[in-house]
Each structure stands twice: as C-alpha cells, then as structure tokens.
Amino acid sequence: MTPRQAKRARGQAELDALEGEVTACRRCPRLVAWREQVAREKRAAFAGWDYWGRPLPGFGDPDARILVFGLAPAAHGGNRTGRIFTGDRSGDWLFAAMYRAGLANQPTSVSRDDGLRLRDAWVSAAVRCAPPANRPTPQERDNCLPWTERELMLLPRVRVIVCLGAFAWDAGLRVRAALGDPAPRPRPRFGHGAELPGERWTLLGCFHPSQQNTFTGRLTEAMLDAVFGRARELGSSP
C-alpha cells in the first residue's frame, strides 16, 4: 500500500467511525420520537419498506471539494431509505443536477444500494433526523452541528459548501465560525447565488430543491446547474 493509499484508508476508517456515532445519536428527544413514530406508522405507499428511522450520516467522495449541505432528512425520504435526499422529490432534482454537473454517476437516488456514487462531492445536512413539519428547533440544530464540524475536518479537500436554503446557510455560517472562520458583520444574508468567501471554505447559496420551489419555478434546472457550475469553479481554486 502506498502512503497515499494508506492515508485514504485511514480517512475512510475515521469517516466510517463517525457514521457509526451519528446513526446511534439520541440527543434530541423530540426528533427521536418523531423519526421512530414515522418509521412505525409509515406511509401507505411505502408499507412494504423497512424504514431506517435513525439519524443520517453524510455520504459521498472522501476526496470531495464540494459539500452539498441540506436542511434535514424528509420523513418518508431519507428517514425511510437511510440516505440523505434519497427517495423524495428534492433528491430527484438534486441528484439529476449533480449528474449533469459530473458529480454523480447516475441521475437518480432511490435507495442505499442503488449504485449511486458521487465524484468530488459529499452530501450532508444541518440536522440529521427528520423533524416534525420539517422544522427543527434552534437547539436541535445546535445539537447536530458538531457532527458537521467533525465531518469537515475529515474532508480536508472541501473548498465550497453549497447551502440549500436559508436554514443551511445559517448553519453553514455557524459551522465555519466554530472551526475558526467567523462571518463578517453584519451577518451575510442568504440568497440564491450568494457567495461568502472564507479562509478555508466558501459558502454558496442555492434555493432548496423542494417542491414549493421547483413546482412554482422559483428554482429551475438552469438555476441549479449554474450553482453547481460555480461550485466546481470554486472547488478548483487553489
């Protein structure tokens, strides 16, 4: 094994260990109760599924230069399938765009064993459990952010964080500050295409690919493609 291969193997082992810690987390009683209730009661369309019903780790390429940062798992999406943005309409849009950008080997994401592989990208979320009404509390957000802090430390090549929505933007600012890169004052506001350079990571804003944005035309495929095109440019910067 070459030194580079050995380093990569150590990094993968650390990411695997972090995944084990994340999926066992029970820090937030309200989220634990909700995710497990949803997993028991299920949705009729998915009655045959064995729901995941646990927190979700990030996934992707350990050599990623782009981190795609969402809000939280969908109750019948990631909370069902066990992989973030997998099995829901938001994921349909997201991974199709990542495929077009050359960041994924296929445009669909339906289950943990569907063969999806990411290239130069890692996908994660500010909150790792499905929240009621898709609205985590500030305390739940703060309980989860240390997972992302540790994740970023294990992804040394990441240069840009694509924040899907205002919640992820705010969480991204907090993660950067916790890792020594505080935001300027006044606090930068979220916007589609907004950029906030930093010493280690640039934040790049993008409307969330939720149905309320994609169905109304607030977010189009061209807009999403432009964000990932810019993310690739930023990720390639020295």
**Strands of the biggest beta sheet: in what spatial order?**
1-3-2-4-6-5
Instruction: List the total number of helices.
Output: 8
Q: Which regions have little confidence, pLDDT < 50, spanning 5+ residues?
A: none
Known CATH architecture: 3-Layer(aba) Sandwich
User: Rg, please?
Assistant: 17 Å
Provide the number of structural domains: 1
Distance between the termini: 28 Å
CATH topology: Uracil-DNA Glycosylase, subunit E
**Average pLDDT taken over every residue:** 95
Specify the structural class. Answer: alpha/beta
**What gross morphology would you assign?**
globular
Q: Which percent bin holds the helix content?
A: 40-55%
Largest sheet: 6 strands, mixed
User: Would you list the SSEs in sequence order as H and E?
Assistant: HHEEHHEHEHEEHH
* CATH level-4 homologous superfamily: Uracil-DNA glycosylase-like domain
Beta strand count = 6
Q: What are its keywords?
A:
Uracil-DNA Glycosylase, subunit E; 6-stranded mixed β-sheet; globular; single chain; alpha/beta; 238 residues; 10% strand; 6 strands
Lay out the secondary structure:
Blueprint: H1 3-23, H2 29-41, E1 59-60, E2 66-70, H3 78-81, H4 89-100, E3 121-125, H5 138-153, E4 160-164, H6 166-178, E5 195-196, E6 202-206, H7 211-214, H8 221-236
Helix pairs in contact: 4-8, 5-6
